[in-house]
Structure formats: structure tokens, C-alpha cells
From TrEMBL:
Superkingdom of this protein's organism: Bacteria
PROSITE patterns in the cross-refs: PROKAR_LIPOPROTEIN
Locations listed in the record: Cell membrane
Key words, A-Z: Cell membrane, Membrane, Transmembrane, Transmembrane helix
Name of this chain's protein: YeiH family protein
Family of the protein in this entry: Belongs to the UPF0324 family.
One matching Pfam family: Cons_hypoth698
InterPro entries: UPF0324_pro, UPF0324_YeiH-like
Keyword Cell membrane attributed: yes
PANTHER family registered for this protein in UniProt: INNER MEMBRANE PROTEIN YEIH-RELATED, UPF0324 INNER MEMBRANE PROTEIN YEIH
Record field: transmembrane: 90-113, 125-144, 156-177, 217-241, 262-280, 286-304, 316-336
Membrane topology, as annotated: Multi-pass membrane protein
GO cellular component, one term: plasma membrane
Length: 345
């Protein structure tokens, strides 16, 4: 019986792995690469196509394997994501990037939660959308989802919002820079792009379109923003525990305990290890490639749990919230990068 259960789980994992391989193949196409769409984004789209077409024709015994990808493999992927970062990156960009990043992340997340409350939105979707907009898009949404343990469709909705507005910015920023609308130095523009673009891929795409001087700063500032995922997840874990404790007191059940997201601690530990530069660059590149595949599997699995009906259930509010946060990133990020950042450059 146990062997049959493991076999069925393996079928679900292999199915998601197959979709992920397809996502990598599609992502290698020239037109997709020019749009800077990562395999993770393609994966969630393929997963959603599966959820709304073939899902009902496959055995339910495969579902545990799909859920394994969206939970366990996701956490391993977040930990290995640390190989993309070093603490030296922080020193290279200086205090300006760190301060602007910290303000952008804090105001975007707190502001998004407040706006979501005013709009009477689903609390989890508002939180995921705010964290995705504030930190690093899909990867941040995945990390937060793993901490609060919400429903997969809510994660997919949040990812959709950051993909839409992040992709728009990736084209908007270079156009504005070349047109002279952004009256900033290349370093200031790099801080602006890195501190406000949603995905790492968006920062890379927009930065390269504006020149090497802008791209180098934009990528480093963006990666510092990614590092801020660790304290955010730790605070989020504490908040979830408090919410559970209040619920327990109301119900008269056992008091909730602080659930520390150990994968976030592992993520930070990997960054520390990577900072010593102990591994050859080809090995690190191979780890990052493998990590992208794991995260693609997680995104695909989340998409496989998301039907159109669930998107309709979420309604338009998540996209309205993401739009307000987008306006803040455009305007507030510009003011911070144009007038505040030069004080520490």
C-alpha cells in the first residue's frame, strides 16, 4: 500500500517535471528571451492550462505529488536561491541602495496591506500581492505562501499581478530613460530600476536595455531587495503565530507557537556560504540553473491547482491593489532615487 502511494506521488512529481522541462524549452525561444519571461512564469501558465483542461482526466492519486512540488520542492528552491547573492553585493552598492530598498519594501508591503483592508480584500491575497510587489515578484510570493500556508489559487492570483505590472515596467523604464524623462544619473536610474521593478528578470532586462552602467547597479540593488525577503518572512512567521494564538484563545484551544520559516534561515545561510566564494563559478551556475528548475516545478504545481473559477472568485480587487502599488513604485521610487539616494552616494 505504501509502495503504491509513493508510486502515485512519483507520477505527480514526474508530471510537473515534464511541464517544467516544457517551460524551459519555451523559455529558450528568442522572442520569449527578449521579453525576459523566466521559465517560472511560463511554468505557472502551463500549470494553469493543465488545471483548466486535462486535470479532471488524470487520477486523483497524483495530487499528492503535485502538492509535494508546491510545498517541499518550493522550500528547497528558496534556500538554493541564496547562491545568486553575496554580502559583498551590499558593500558594492553602498548605503544609498540599501536605504531606498528598505523604504520601498516597507512602504509597499504595509501600504498594500492597508489598502487591501480598506478594499475589504481577502487578507492572504492582499498580503501576497504586496510582498510580491515590494520584494522580488514570484519568488517572494512563493516564500510568503510557504509561510502562511494559503490556498494555491491565491498565490497564482498574486503572481499574475506582479507579472503584468513588472513586464510593463520592463519596457516603460528604458523608453522613459532614453526619452530623457528620467532626469537622473546612470547610478540613480540603476537604483530606481532595482528598487522598483518586480522580478529579477525584469531588472536584468530593463537594466541591459539602458546600458551596462545602469544594469550593474540595478541588478545589485535588486538582489539586496531579494535579501530583505529573509526578515520579512521571519516577521511574517511571527505574525502568523500571533494570529493563530488569538484564534486559539477565542476557540479555547491550544495556544499557537511561533512558526519560524527555516527555509528563510537556510536562504540566509546559503548567502553567507556563497559570500566566501568557495565554489567555482561553473558549479554555482549549475546550482542556479538547477534551482531555477526547482522553482519552475513549484510554480507549475501552483498553477496546476488554479482554475479559472478560482480567478473569478478572487475578482478584480487584487489587480486594482497591484495597480495602486505600481503607481507608488513608479512615483515614490522615482522621488527616493532622485532626491534621497544622492545623499548617500
Amino acid at each position: 500500500m505504501l509502495t503504491e502511494k509513493r508510486s502515485s506521488m512519483l507520477h505527480g512529481v514526474l508530471l510537473i517535471a515534464l511541464f517544467s522541462c516544457a517551460a524551459f524549452y519555451i523559455g529558450s525561444a528568442q522572442v520569449v528571451r527578449e521579453l525576459s519571461l523566466s521559465p517560472m512564469i511560463i511554468g505557472i501558465v502551463l500549470g494553469m492550462l493543465y488545471a483548466n483542461s486535462l486535470r479532471n482526466n488524470l487520477p486523483e492519486t497524483w495530487v499528492p505529488g503535485i502538492q509535494f512540488c508546491s510545498k517541499r520542492i518550493l522550500r528547497v528552491g528558496i534556500i538554493l536561491y541564496g547562491f545568486r547573492l553575496t554580502f559583498q553585493d551590499i558593500l558594492n552598492v553602498g548605503a544609498a541602495g540599501i536605504i531606498v530598498d528598505a523604504i520601498v519594501v516597507a512602504t509597499t508591503i504595509l501600504g498594500g496591506i492597508l489598502i487591501g483592508k480598506m478594499m475589504k480584500m481577502d487578507r492572504d491575497i492582499a498580503l501576497l500581492t504586496s510582498i510580491g510587489s515590494g520584494i522580488c515578484g514570484a519568488a517572494a510570493v512563493l516564500g510568503a505562501e510557504s509561510t502562511i500556508q494559503t490556498k494555491p489559487y491565491k498565490t497564482a492570483v498574486a503572481v499574475a499581478t506582479v507579472v503584468i505590472f513588472g513586464t510593463l515596467s520592463m519596457f516603460l523604464y528604458p523608453i522613459a530613460y532614453r526619452a530623457g524623462i528620467l532626469e537622473m544619473t546612470p547610478q540613480e536610474v540603476g537604483i530606481y530600476a532595482g528598487a522598483t521593478l518586480h522580478e529579477v528578470a525584469h531588472a536584468v532586462g530593463a537594466g541591459n536595455a539602458m546600458g551596462a552602467d545602469v544594469a550593474n547597479v540595478a541588478i545589485i540593488v535588486k538582489m539586496i531587495r531579494v535579501m530583505l525577503l529573509v526578515p520579512v518572512l521571519l516577521i511574517l512567521g511571527w505574525w502568523v503565530a500571533r494570529r493563530a494564538a488569538r484564534s486559539a484563545q477565542h476557540d479555547g484551544s491550544t495556544k499557537g507557537k511561533v512558526a519560524i520559516p527555516w527555509f528563510a534561515v537556510g536562504f540566509l545561510a546559503v548567502i553567507g556560504f556563497n559570500s566566501f566564494d568557495l565554489l567555482p563559478m561553473p558549479v554555482v551556475d549549475a546550482i542556479n540553473y538547477f534551482d531555477t528548475f526547482l522553482l519552475t516545478m513549484a510554480m507549475t504545481a501552483l498553477g496546476a491547482e488554479t482554475s479559472i473559477d478560482k480567478f473569478k472568485k478572487a475578482g478584480a480587487k487584487p489587480f486594482i491593489l497591484a495597480f495602486w502599488l505600481y503607481l507608488w513604485l513608479l512615483g515614490g521610487g522615482y522621488l527616493l532615487s532622485r532626491y534621497l539616494a544622492p545623499l548617500w552616494l
